[in-house]
Amino acid sequence: MLTTLNAQLRAPGLAALILRISLGVLFLAHAWLKIAVFTPSGTAQFFQSLGLPGPLAYLTIIAEVLGGIALIIGWQVRVVSLALLPILLGAIFFNHAKAGFFFTNEGGGWEFPAFWAISLIVLALLGGGKAAVTTD
To answer: TM segments (predicted)?
Structure first.
């Protein structure tokens, strides 16, 4: 019976589906934050305050929207996961690292973006899973 239950709990295709949709929604939410709350020009100013080129903010927003949609529908999941990784590594190194580890620290630490980056790596290794538009 334990062997049967163990076999039933192994569902890597379903796990990949849940992970990719969750990550896709997170990317869309963060893009929406940059568009609706901070505004694209405000986001560009923030990027400049970190020493980054302002136009990189617009590219980041576009990547988050298109990448989020691609993950949700399951299009080129391995490639898209790896392509989105620099956004999170940039967030860690240019913004959150100075605030320490915990995301509850003032300025938000690097805990959450690091976990998000690791999740992208895991998804790149798993592939799109069930109901993906393209297979990897």
So the answer is: 12-33, 56-75, 82-103, 115-133
